[in-house]
Amino acid sequence: MLNRMATLLIVEDDALLRDALAGQLGPLGWDIATATNVEQARSALQNQAVDGVILDLGLPGGDGLDVLTWARAHISGLPVLILTARDGIEDRVRGLNSGADDYLTKPFDMLELQARVQAMLRRARQPAFQQANAGPSTTVGELQLDHGLRQATLGGEPLDLTQREWELLELLVHRAGEVVTRDDVLAAWHASPPEPGQSSAALNSNALEVYVHRLRKKLDASPLSIRNIRGLGYMLEKP
C-alpha cells in the first residue's frame, strides 16, 4: 500500500476491462480516473493532478502513443505504464523509446499489473528519479544529452553524431551501468526511420560493431567508456 492516496488515470476504451481495472485498483488505495479516447485523456491530464497513467494504445480518435508524446512534452516525470495487446518487439521498443516507464501486454495477470504500478509509482517518488526528470536532458559525467534537440555535448563541446550514433548513445546513457544487448539496439534501430540512403537490411551485428567503434572514438576525450560484455552486448561505464 502506498503512503498516500495517488490518482491513477486509466485510458482504456474497452468498458469491461476499464471497469475491471478500476474495481481491482481502487480498493488498494488509489483514486481512479478514467478516459476512453485520446481527447478525454488529454483533458483529464490538463484538468486534474494525476500521479500515474495506465495507457492502452489502440484508442478511438488516435493512438495511445499520441497521449504519451503529449504527456512527455507537458508533464515532466509522469509515470506511464502501457497496457496493450500489441506484443511485437518493435511495438515494445517504440513504446519505451517514446517515454513509457513500463510495458505490459494483454492478456495479463492482475497481481502482476498491481505490482508493476506500485513499483512505477515508488520509483517516481525517489529523489533520483525526480532529478532525472526535471528537464529534457540527461547528464553522465561530462556528457550531456538534450533529448528534445537530439544533441549531445562532451565537456561543453558539441558531438557530431549520426542518427544511429545518437540512438545508440541515448540507449547506453539511459541504461548507464547496465548491459544493453545487441538485440536491444537493433530493435530500437529497426523501430525508427532509416538514415538517408540506408536500408533496414543494413542494420545487423556487423554494422553495430562499426557504430560502437565510431562512438568510442568520439568519447575518447572523456572518462566514459563503452565496455564490450562478451556474448551479451555493451555497457556505458560511469566515470
TrEMBL record:
InterPro entries attached to this UniProt entry: CheY-like_superfamily, OmpR/PhoB-type_DNA-bd, Sig_transdc_resp-reg_C-effctor, Sig_transdc_resp-reg_receiver, WalR-like, WH-like_DNA-bd_sf
Annotated CDD domains: trans_reg_C
Modified residues (4-aspartylphosphate): 56
Pfam families recorded: Response_reg (PF00072), Trans_reg_C (PF00486)
Keywords: DNA-binding, Phosphoprotein, Transcription, Transcription regulation
SUPFAM superfamilies xref list: C-terminal effector domain of the bipartite response regulators (SSF46894), CheY-like (SSF52172)
Residue range(s) of DNA binding per entry: 135-238
Domain OmpR/PhoB-type, chain residue ranges per copy: 135-238
Keyword rRNA processing: no
Domain Response regulatory: 7-121
Domain of life: Bacteria
Protein's recorded name: Response regulator transcription factor
Protein source organism: Acidovorax lacteus
Lineage, opening ranks: Bacteria, Pseudomonadati, Pseudomonadota, Betaproteobacteria, Burkholderiales
